[in-house]
Amino acid sequence: MVQVRNEEIKEEINERQEDERIKSAVERLSDDVELIADCSRPYSLPTVCGKHKDLKSISPQTVEDLLNGKYPTIDNNHMILDCRYQYEYDGGHIQGAINTYIKDSIDNLLQLQDKPKILIFHCEFSSQRAPTLLRYLRSQDRLLNSDNYPSLYYPEVYILDGGYKAFYEQTQNLCEPCDYIQMLDPKFSEELSIFQSKKSRGNRSREEKMRKPRVIRF
């Protein structure tokens, strides 16, 4: 009986310590909004007031400065995620950007062994596709780290204000090829239909898988 009681006391102490840790993390997030999402340090890049109040936005100028090496502490430890469809990406994208437009790609990103320090999302205007995938990343990241709040695999994530359009209009020399294909370009109406259908099927398939219990290993 004494041993059982001791175990209960230890469990109660652990629960109280966990509650205090979570409470402390929440208070730090509330007191200093400039801390990254795991409360470990300030944001590395200057932010701007974007259209998505729940997301951290950075300007095209900041991305240009990053690519030109003006943030040496970050160096190449970042990843730019272009959430447009492939024909838009192939028609012109920011140097080094990776084409990512479905949620399965975000799941793969969470399983990377060598994770970049910073992620930057964008689509054509950074209005819908990029914010949707960014929020999905954060929700899955929180879920995977739910036992160790506020830890995250990707605590420092930004969205490019104005999207590729704004970046291209300001910094064409950092786009490859140097061009800009709009999502609704009439010449690519067939491709648009194909990619939207593919994206829809992929999301439905993923939702069906999530209904079944599964173990995620890293």
Automatic annotation (TrEMBL):
Source organism's superkingdom? Answer: Eukaryota
- Keyword Cell division (UniProt): yes
Q: Which residue numbers delimit the Rhodanese domain? A: 74-176
Keywords annotated in UniProt: Cell cycle, Cell division, Hydrolase, Mitosis, Protein phosphatase
List the catalysed reactions.
O-phospho-L-tyrosyl-[protein] + H2O = L-tyrosyl-[protein] + phosphate
Which Enzyme Commission numbers does its entry carry? 3.1.3.48
Single biological process term from Gene Ontology: G2/M transition of mitotic cell cycle
Q: What class of enzyme is it?
A: hydrolase
InterPro entries listed in its UniProt record: MPI_Phosphatase, Rhodanese-like_dom, Rhodanese-like_dom_sf
Keyword Lipid biosynthesis assigned = no
GO cellular component terms listed in the entry, alphabetical order: cytoplasm; nucleus
A GO MF label: protein tyrosine phosphatase activity
Main role? Tyrosine protein phosphatase which functions as a dosage-dependent inducer of mitotic progression.
Assigned protein family? Belongs to the MPI phosphatase family.
UniProt-recorded name of the protein: M-phase inducer phosphatase
